Amino acid sequence: MIESVKNITVKELHQKIKKGEKFHLIDVREQFERDICNIGGELMNFGKLMENLDKIPRNIPVILYCHYGERSYLITQVLTENAGFNNVWNLKGGINEWAIEIDTRIPKY
Could you tell me the pTM of the whole model? Predict the structure, then answer.
């Protein structure tokens, strides 16, 4: 089976941010998680995201993140395999990995 999910590391995302590259960041966690910490992006849990597929850009990279990268992985897979997106990436390790590798001031939960 061919792997349909594209992953991006926190270091790669950090480089994109530093270079000012254009992309759309989506936080697929719940509001209570975002209240603890976030790295920006539009908050859209799975249900909201599936109801608003028309609002997700198809002409620039879209990067999804969650706590550990598991939910965002599954949502990236659904968007790729079932909704026809070819521009979506999963943030491998999620915000937890970001807190370890990029910004240790971000609270881990």
Answer: 0.94
